[in-house]
Amino acid sequence: MDVKDGKTVKGVNFVNFRDAGDPVELGQEYSRQGADELVYLDITASYEGRKTFTELVRKVAAQVNIPFTVGGGIDELCDVERLLNAGADKVSVNSAALRNPQLIEAIAANFGSQVCVVAIDARFEDGTWRCYRSGGHVPTERELFSWAKEAQERGAGEILFTSMTHDGVKDGYANDALAVLHDTLSIPVIASGGAGSKEHFRDAFLLGKADAALAASVFHFGEIPIPELKNYLTKEGICVRI
Question: Computed from CA positions of residues 104, 105, 110, 114, in that sequence, does the dihedral angle turn out positive or negative?
């Protein structure tokens, strides 16, 4: 769930956002439907220089009974401690890790690798996957696969890869890139960006070799019920938690 000004929003290619509802209520509904985990990203925190809303995390923790990750504006250990104390299970770092890769090591050393999710927003341009920071606003010199490998070596417990090229387009995940990540890394890879049908989830697992698949708009706007999706994936031979 992308959160902006306390509301869940969804855009296309990281722009043109529309309101998708209350993040706590949506979290409760997805938990009821059988989602395995939730990810809350304060998408303008880094760009605007703010901190993730701790109060929202407390509300989610009080109302939702499945694990959830929180990201946005996390750039020092006290931010991680504050969010974990508020009830988050994991934290996601992106911009701060690109600026200061040692942050990954510090989080892993102080709280364990299982807490540290490194989110990578990348766009395919000029024949390569360029990493972006600050909510997709600022390009960097980092390349997806080498940065993911470095993040793992520094202690990341998971990689959350969002294809900015595929985000909100609903034409399928970046399966070729996901497969390379799977073959490069030994930690779980979460696919994000591009889900539009149940088949897209299947392909992310079978072709992209992803360990998990994250989606937003197909759930926010009732296009694919989670129980229906899980039943479909089970019939396709993919092991999911029912």
Answer: positive
